[in-house]
């Protein structure tokens, strides 16, 4: 939840598609569940970094027609309270934990300060078990025929494996989609939030 009581709903990056879905009443309220979201202006513009350049995102704001709770429709290219595209952050996590790159190398590839890259990695490690459990749940929800996800040797790598398996299951069910926007959406934008913010569970 954002300051001021607004909720966040992760949506596809295509602004035209989001607008059409919103006008058609295609988004359910996350507060009362029964209500449908309607247009309610825009949230502040965000400038997200993409390896040295900036991408401007202006999230749509909406309001439930039943309970009147407002929601910010955040595109899945972003994470809550992070200035960089989720693709950039995801690539950095993979480079650090799978490829074994140093923090300096990770930061240089992402176009950020070493301290920023370290914070991403530290936060991911701090909530690695919660991430593994949440995405394992998504994987089995999306593909009930899946067996156990094999452990890979460290909490961070196990969490990344669960994200990858869940994304692959989503691809088989709904068609191919980028890995890290899927992770942003499935986590409700909370992939690198503080450890008190629980990741959403598959319904």
Descriptive account of the structure:
The chain has 203 residues and is of the alpha+beta class. It folds into 2 domains: 3-75, no CATH class; 86-186, no CATH class. It contains 7 helices and 6 strands. It has helices spanning 15-23, 86-97, 103-110, 114-126, 128-142, 155-174, 179-186, and strands spanning 7-11, 37-42, 46-50, 53-57, 60-64, 70-75. The chain has a 4-stranded mixed sheet. A hairpin with a 5-residue loop joins strand 5 (60-64) and strand 6. It starts with 6 loop residues before the first strand and ends in a 17-residue tail after the last helix.
Would you summarize the structure shown here?
The protein is of the alpha+beta class. The protein contains seven helices and six strands. It starts with 6 loop residues before the first strand and ends in a 17-residue tail after the last helix.
Feature tags:
alpha+beta; 2 domains; 7 helices; four-stranded mixed sheet; globular; two-stranded antiparallel ribbon; about 200 residues
How are the SSEs ordered, and which strands pair?
Layout: E1 7-11, H1 15-23, E2 37-42, E3 46-50, E4 53-57, E5 60-64, E6 70-75, H2 86-97, H3 103-110, H4 114-126, H5 128-142, H6 155-174, H7 179-186
Parallel strand pairs: 1-6
Antiparallel strand pairs: 2-5, 3-4, 5-6
Structural class of the helix and strand makeup? alpha+beta
Our measurement of the CA-to-CA distance between the termini, rounded to an integer number of angstroms, reads: 19 Å
* Largest sheet data: 4 strands, mixed
What is the chains' assembly state?
Answer: single chain
Tell me the radius of gyration: 17 Å
The helix/strand order is EHEEEEEHHHHHH
Low-confidence stretches: none
Strand content: 15-25%
Number of domains: 2
- Count of separate DSSP helical elements: 7
Mean pLDDT: 94
Sum up the overall morphology in one term.
globular
Roughly how much helix do the residues carry, as a percent range? Answer: 40-55%
Q: Strands across the major sheet, in which order?
A: 1-6-5-2
Count of strand segments: 6
């Amino acid at each position: 939840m954002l300051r001021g009581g607004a909720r966040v709903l992760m949506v596809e990056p295509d602004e035209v598609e989001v607008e059409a879905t919103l006008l058609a009443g295609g988004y359910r309220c996350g507060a009362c569940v029964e209500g449908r979201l309607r247009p309610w202006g825009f949230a502040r513009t965000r400038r997200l970094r993409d390896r040295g350049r900036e991408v401007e995102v202006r999230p749509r704001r909406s309001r439930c027609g039943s309970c009147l709770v407002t929601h910010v429709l955040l595109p899945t290219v972003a994470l809550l309270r992070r200035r960089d595209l989720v693709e950039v952050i995801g690539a950095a996590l993979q480079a650090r934990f799978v490829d074994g790159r140093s923090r300096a190398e990770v930061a240089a590839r992402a176009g950020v300060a070493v301290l920023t890259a370290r914070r991403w990695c530290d936060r991911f490690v701090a909530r690695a078990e919660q991430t593994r459990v949440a995405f394992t749940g998504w994987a089995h929800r999306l593909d009930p025929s899946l067996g156990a996800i094999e452990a890979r040797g460290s909490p961070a790598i196990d969490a990344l494996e669960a994200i990858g398996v869940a994304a692959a299951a989503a691809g088989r069910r709904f068609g191919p989609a980028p890995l890290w926007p899927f992770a942003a959406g499935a986590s409700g934008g909370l992939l690198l939030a503080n450890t008190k913010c629980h990741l959403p569970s598959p319904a």
